[in-house]
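At your convenience, could you comment on the folded chain following this short note?
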Amino acid sequence: VLEDGSLRHGPLECLFTVDEETGLTGAAALSSEMLRSTNLINLDSEEQESIYIGCAGGAGINIALPIKREAVPAESSCYRVTLKGLKGGHSGVDIHLQRGNAIQLLSRALSAVLREQSFHLAGYSGGNMHNAIPREAYADIVIPLPSQDSVIQSLDTALEGIRKEYKPVEPELEFSIDGSDRFENVLEFESGQTVLNLLSALPHGVLTMSYQIPDLVETSANLATAGIDQEALRIHMSYRSSSASALDGVALKVEAVAELAGVRAERVEGYPGWQPDVNSQLLRIAREVHLRILGVEAEIKAIHAGLECGLIKEKYPSMDMISIGPQIEYPHSPDEQVEIKSVDKFYQLLVALLEELGTRS
């Protein structure tokens, strides 16, 4: 748009932000006196033939659970238990698909076996991004030799049950229980038990659906990352909602679970949602242009993910805004891709909308 001098449009302000994916920090640092425009066309949506008019707010919460370690028991064997092959995906856009969370599924299997048989936890790791559903996780365990075969069989049974349970949505889920070199130390039994209990109890997935917009997730939580170092189990959770009250409710729930495990959770500052305005003048114009240029009525939607519109709206409350974009599939996963032909349609819509707004200014 900036390079093509043949396009017709009114005055433009083009805002390029940094670090959108890692925390919306560019938009958060935007001055409330920088922009003069009254309309904002955000170019960060991921669904063609749709116009977005709202998004969820979000926040994070950290938990550090101190652990106690001891020497590896004599007459024992070391194993690494791995769960992988999950689809993962965006913790907002894909949360309603009920995909597996590798951290919770592995913890669930280990916790079930630990209630019946004894072993020591030596290590744990899963997830790597605050806004992605964890695709894989592993745990290092130490099993007393007399019960080695029994524990491995029980773990195999528990994990196989989970694999079958999730096969319709996670056909590539796989697990392994492999012998490992001897570990330096292990968690004391009670400490390992608390780790698995905490990971199993934390909320994940859709918590409530919208009461106003059909099929829209209102509130969700994502157990994003978990890892054990020499001192503590460190957990990060992200959570989203179009309701500020519901956001606070999720944080209270996580804090309560953490306190039952004997620690306090630390909230991470979040970002505001963007409340839909179905009477928006910009929306009305965009719908007219969409029908004229693309030949179909646009779907009007809100998204259960964070868009920079929420932060910008907070600083410019009178600004009218919409969000559009090409078709993007499987965001925040190794399978992420854009539908090439949708990019051309997206561009046609954008330049036609700019021209229409220019004639009305």
